[in-house]
Automatic annotation (TrEMBL):
<protein>
    <submittedName>
        <fullName>SCO0930 family lipoprotein</fullName>
    </submittedName>
</protein>
<dbReference type="Pfam" id="PF03640">
    <property type="entry name" value="Lipoprotein_15"/>
</dbReference>
<feature type="signal peptide">
    <location>
        <begin position="1"/>
        <end position="25"/>
    </location>
</feature>
<dbReference type="InterPro" id="IPR047910">
    <property type="entry name" value="SCO0930-like"/>
</dbReference>
<keyword id="KW-0732">Signal</keyword>
<keyword id="KW-0449">Lipoprotein</keyword>
<dbReference type="InterPro" id="IPR005297">
    <property type="entry name" value="Lipoprotein_repeat"/>
</dbReference>
Length: 323
């Protein structure tokens, strides 16, 4: 398998929120995305006791944590990945699974640049590494994110965006997510290689790296956020999406400044619409979601009518023609 990963970074700003009369301004240009591809490196040393892999000590035997070989989980743990797929989990949103439907995980003690596994010995018994040999990308998965890393025993482990991939021995049925949050270091994998997070813990606004659009703003449910080119940001936010338009493009409700992650703070505020609804802005521009987006990560609203576009972390339009 050809080794590759994507270098993903969130655009963060520590600028304080300014007053409405001084913060709102006009934009220029559109957002761009980038991708770095490199070569995987050999895995590191064996992780010792206390490395946070789920409370399994050095004296724990494989049979104490691994499911029986004859069970559904046991068969899945021993097998290769096959075609990866995306599962919609009620709590975690989009989660990466293998061909048997078993949830895939990443470990905070590992590294993605360069790829390096720090889970060996008892850790690897509780968290079996996923072989890289026959892993392929199914629908909704960017195949360029799949790679491999050489472990200390010489075996090839699957990586997603550089992160070594594991199953959890205590997941015995397809769809189980018992490994989520274990030890504060293990997390289910999202399709882009990031951590899957509980919807209730997600920020009101954050940034997601879309394979086509680059860094874009999403709401707390992971739904893509859009701007309407007919709206105004200067000298104050003004919406031109009223009545029936609002049914198709719901206004994003106000979000506290400290409930955002990776979004520019300047111009991050709410305003009162003519219909009395309070709406959020990014860089003073009103923001919306799209009724045609049915699942987190959908970008069906992008470019609709030549007037609706996803929003970059600095509030600019993503992919819109230059004015």
């Amino acid at each position: 398998m050809k080794t590759s990963w994507r270098s993903a970074s969130l655009v963060a700003s520590a600028v304080s929120v300014l007053a409405l009369t001084t913060a709102c301004g006009q934009e220029g240009g559109t957002a761009a995305s980038s991708q770095n591809v490199g070569v995987t490196a050999p895995a590191g040393t064996v992780a010792g006791v206390g490395s946070g892999y789920g409370g399994v000590g050095a004296g724990t035997s494989p049979s104490a944590s691994a499911p029986a070989a004859g069970g559904a989980g046991g068969a899945a743990q021993a097998g290769s990945a096959g075609q990866l797929a995306v599962s919609a989990d009620a709590e975690l949103g989009k989660v990466l699974i293998d061909a048997a439907g078993m949830t895939l995980y990443r470990f905070d003690a590992d590294t993605a640049e360069p790829p390096k596994s720090n889970c060996d010995g008892d850790c690897a018994t509780t968290w079996p590494p996923v072989p890289a040999d026959d892993a392929t990308a199914g629908d909704g998965i960017d195949k360029s994110l799949l790679g491999e890393v050489t472990r200390t025993d010489g075996s090839k482990q699957l990586t997603v965006d550089g992160w070594p991939v594991y199953r959890y021995a205590k997941d015995t049925n397809a769809g189980d997510t018992n490994g989520q949050g274990v030890g504060g270091k293990w997390f289910a994998l999202a399709p882009d290689g990031k951590k899957a997070k509980s919807a209730s813990a997600a920020p009101g606004l954050s940034v997601r790296k879309d394979p086509n659009l680059g860094d874009i703003v999403v709401d707390k449910n992971g739904m893509t956020v859009y701007r309407f080119v007919k709206d105004q940001a200067w000298p104050k936010p003004v919406t031109e999406c009223l009545g029936a338009c609002l049914e198709k493009w719901p206004a994003v409700a106000p979000v506290a400044t400290n409930d955002t992650e990776g979004v520019q703070k300047k111009g991050l505020m709410s305003f009162a619409r003519p219909d009395g609804i309070k709406q959020m802005t990014v860089n003073c521009s009103p923001i919306y979601t799209f009724s045609g987006d049915k699942a987190p990560g959908d970008i069906n609203g992008q470019g609709v009518g030549g007037t609706w576009y996803a929003v970059a972390p600095d509030g600019k339009l993503v992919g819109a023609p230059k004015q």
